[in-house]
Design brief:
About 70% of the residues lie in helices and about 0% in strands. It has six helices and no strands. The termini are far apart.
């Protein structure tokens, strides 16, 4: 379960980075993913026992990432991931590869 949450947080970071998003946010999601992946106890247990406040007390997890973790635990996904995926234009993404241009 922790690895699933970490993968989702990494996916948010990947999508934000692909779209030239704020590097602070990208790094924050990556650090939070690492924190979750390295946890010994299940992140769901931390949320169940202490609520979001307990999540926010973990290293590299702030208010918005704690909310993201809670959303992923409750729904299995993150609305932000769907939004970020939807805003990726496949043609522009392909053109971002070095050596590939409009032609």
């Amino acid at each position: 379960e922790n690895h699933f949450i970490a993968e989702k947080l990494d996916e948010v970071a990947d999508l934000m980075q692909q779209q030239n998003g704020n590097q602070f946010h990208v790094r924050a999601y990556r650090e939070a993913a690492q924190t979750v992946a390295l946890m010994q106890s299940p992140i769901a247990k931390v949320l169940a026992e202490g609520g979001r406040t307990e999540l926010e007390a973990l290293p590299a997890i702030g208010v918005s990432i704690a909310a993201a973790i809670q959303e992923i635990l409750e729904t299995g996904d993150r609305v932000m991931i769907k939004r970020l995926r939807g805003s990726l234009d496949p043609e522009k993404l392909f053109q971002s590869i070095p050596g590939i241009g409009p032609k």
